[in-house]
């Protein structure tokens, strides 16, 4: 078990936040992301992973709003198959594959599940 203190240079702390906010007006960045919900955080990660300098700001905190209520599931488009939206189902499956293989393989993994098909379960 690692009992060492977090690295203050990389830990998300109030002191680091204040230090970086104070330095921001003097810096020129490639990308400014406003809003750190799922989409904003993903855009910031994608830009940074491509070597761009990124400043990301939010009125509250990372994933403070709607994103904090997420089910944390990465959908693969199955719900669109039921209504015949094959193009949307395909696009969702491709995006899920990108997340699993390239964007966030350290965060996303497949989980098996069982869906009972009984009269009590709507289709």
UniProtKB/TrEMBL annotation:
Cofactor(s) the protein requires to work: FAD
Domain of life: Bacteria
Gene3D superfamilies to which the protein is assigned, alphabetical: FAD/NAD(P)-binding domain
A molecular-function term among this protein's GO annotations: glycerol-3-phosphate dehydrogenase (quinone) activity
GO BP of this protein: glycerol-3-phosphate catabolic process
UniProt key word Oxidoreductase: yes
Domain FAD dependent oxidoreductase: 30-117
Similarity-based family: Belongs to the FAD-dependent glycerol-3-phosphate dehydrogenase family.
Record's protein name: FAD-dependent oxidoreductase
